[in-house]
Amino acid sequence: MLEVTRREAVYLWYYFDIQFRQIFWYWVLGMVLGSAISVFAKDRIHNTFRTLGKRKVGVLGIVAASALGIASPLCMYGTIPIAASFSRSGIRDDWLAAFMMSSILLNPQLIVYSAALGTTALTVRILSCFLCGILAGLLVRVFYREKSFFNFTGFDEPKSRDTDPNILLRFLKNLGRNIKATGLYFLFGIILSALFQRYVPQELMTSLFGGNEAFGVLMAATIGVPLYACGGGTIPLLQAWLLDGMSMGSAAAFMITGPATKITNLGAVKIVLGIKRFLLYLAFVMAFALLCGLAVNGVIGLTG
Hints:
Strand content: under 5%
Number of domains: 1
Distance between the termini: 48 Å
């Protein structure tokens, strides 16, 4: 019995070590980049959005808002007070919807993490999140042209925690908070990945998430709801699943529903939407994830 336990520990360490070596430097680079943008570029990104709001660019503003949402390093609880400030300064709700939707799904730090999945997965993630933000903005523009979509009552712009007069210490303090916020999730994701690789047959993953089947995409979109806790923590899982036969469309669906239905993000979104629009948000996320996954599989099938 002891020998079996020891052998299993060796196997698990083997999988853990491989995964850790493959992803660790992406995690480090992502944290460094995320902290650098948060300390040195966050205000410039947000001021660019405010300036854009004063120009009459029409629908193109939705496209720019979605791109700026991806560039913003804030989590959703940080994004909502900023969005409230944008709203008070005259930014339209459709632009805010695009900004907030893409900000939920992606940020510069997660882009670097996702590079560990390969060029195709990274490209799919960036494009799908960008398009999701644009579509959210367009829908709000069409159906809520004459009425308010968000309720930002009671939200004030948060005080910046990056206030140390020494610029190097300011960056290091932000980096320390970043490590504290993501480190355990990162390690937990690698442990889960090692367990999956050791105990879940590759044939099962292929049958569930492989091929171009709509069922696999729907399954991936569905498991993204309870399984997603932190963007960096799911990268090891996705890497293992893709190696085991998960289709790129299924991965795309998971990368949409995961962050969009992360419990902390849902709590923040419900506050500013109310129950009716919150349910619309959930329906939109699931529908977009399913259609996006099927489209990705279709495109890859045609080009492959």
